[in-house]
Amino acid sequence: MSSSTVSLYLDPQIRDWVLFPITLVMILVGILRHYVVVLLQSPPKKQTREAIREQRALTRSQILRATASFSPAPPHLYRAISHSLSTAFAAGTYLKDGPPKGDAPPTPPNPLDPAAMDGMMSGMKTQMVMMVPQMLPFPLTLGFKSMLQRGIETPDMDVRWVSSLSWYFLNFFGLNGLYRLILGGDNSAAEPQPSATASPFAQPANAGAPAGPQDFNKLFKAERDNLEFAEGMYKWVADGVEERVLRRYGKLSPASLD
């Protein structure tokens, strides 16, 4: 018996009146969603100079520790910066509210910080805009539903054939590159990519969650211990650079180092 290959072709009317409209509508919905999110977001509040200095001091210390094992700073400069930061952290010099007065305990951060509440509301607005389009599916006639989504049970179907439902999900996760090209990299139209531990429907719920207020007094105390630990791992990048350069270009043999 001779086996014949059966090809399944896509009806041009299905392509023109189902697949193309789904793609066009999803692109327009994504662009509209981006501009709605932009309109709903409140302008960021300006931070005080003291608050910025508090954050930058912690960042400076973290960068210093991260480069300790291959630091471009000479030993005397590295230790001077490390000791200066450690002393300032112990005295509370960089705290935006000033050093703690006397034996009074430092004031804990306000859990109802207006800035944190604004960030929470902004995240909720974004998630609301993300959820609204999912409540409006694309209705199809009964004839299309039986043919495009269910009812076709054949093992010889070409893998290139897609239904309207699978085409919707392909567009749902595949239009992010087009959104970045049209709206830029920082846009609100792109759908979050699913991770290995979270489903694509559970991840957006945690996507805009704002971080709680930080207690910089405790962070500075912990950073002092980290700076002391990093000093034990310190190594200058230029230590022995002459020998390394000569060895690399063949001017110094390993036997001459003995």
UniProtKB/TrEMBL annotation:
Record has Transmembrane as a keyword: yes
Topology versus the membrane: Multi-pass membrane protein
UniProt KW keywords: Membrane, Transmembrane, Transmembrane helix
Major subcellular site: membrane
One Pfam family cited in the UniProt record for this chain: EMC3_TMCO1
GO BP annotations listed: protein folding in endoplasmic reticulum
Region (Disordered): 189-214
GO CC, alphabetical: EMC complex
Domain of life per record: Eukaryota
Composition-biased stretches (Low complexity): 200-214
Coiled coil feature spans: none
SMART domains documented for this protein: DUF106
Protein location: Membrane
Residues that span the membrane, as ranges: 17-40
PANTHER family for the chain: ER MEMBRANE PROTEIN COMPLEX SUBUNIT 3
Task performed by this protein: The EMC seems to be required for efficient folding of proteins in the endoplasmic reticulum (ER).
Family membership: Belongs to the EMC3 family.
UniProt protein name: ER membrane protein complex subunit 3
